Amino acid sequence: MDKTLSTAATGLSSQQRYIEIISNNLANVNTTGYKKVRPEFQDLLYETLRPYGNTPQSGSQPLNEVQIGSGTELVSTTKQFGQGTVEQTGNQYDMAINGNGFFPVRRPDNTIGYTRDGSFTIDKNGTLVTSQGYVLDPEIRIPDDVVSVTISRDGIVTAKSSGDMTVDTELGRIQLARFTNPAGLRAMGDNLYLPSSASGDAILETPGTNNTGEIIQNHLESSNVDLVQEMVNMILAQRAYEINSKSVKTADDVLNTAVNLKR
Hints:
Elements: H1 2-27, E1 37-43, E2 46-50, E3 66-69, E4 72-79, E5 86-88, E6 95-98, E7 103-106, E8 112-115, E9 121-122, E10 128-129, E11 135-136, E12 146-151, E13 156-161, E14 169-173, E15 176-178, E16 186-189, E17 192-194, E18 203-205, E19 214-217, E20 219-221, H2 227-260
Antiparallel strand pairs: 1-4, 2-3, 5-20, 6-19, 7-8, 7-11, 9-10, 12-13, 13-14, 15-18, 16-17
Helix pairs in contact: 1-2
């Protein structure tokens, strides 16, 4: 009975984590560039009650050994970097990536983070920054007299100034980063990711090359969370939690009956 309680307890813990992951996905259904998380579970150690080859009194050799599992546990959470829907916004500084790349941005401690959130704006110095204030790297400054900004699909930023509307002045070039294993990136909040030993180092590319993706101006990438699928997953996780909780109660009732037999 102790083993039954332990197995059911691991199931309760795992399903609780699953519900928390689903809840986070649902909470970020409107977060720009958010990538849904998929939990990965594995079974735990098995107790072998009768090993293979152990001949019983009947003299016949059993086909399979007898094993009882110890439950399940959450072993990893994997970001699903499928493309989200690209939606038009009309903001000239908004950018969506149609592909696998990331925008490199400089954090306050001068480390480089990576984001799919292309909702850029300009700060008081005219520098392109994210909505959280992280500076796009390499840095691009927009002069005060600029009337309109154009960002090509391969990352070239040009502008027309109020002094001469017929001339396009190049202000800089945006680079995108790609990773060998983007699922290994470490999420830091603020729509930022940092490289890890699992993701590998960032590889900077010109947009549109080596499957990095093109930049689409005046658009943003929405979350890739499938609301209907997440709701279905939530129902399944709730039912699994309920079943595991009933297993705990059943094991407790059986144990209580066994104890009362002695009286």
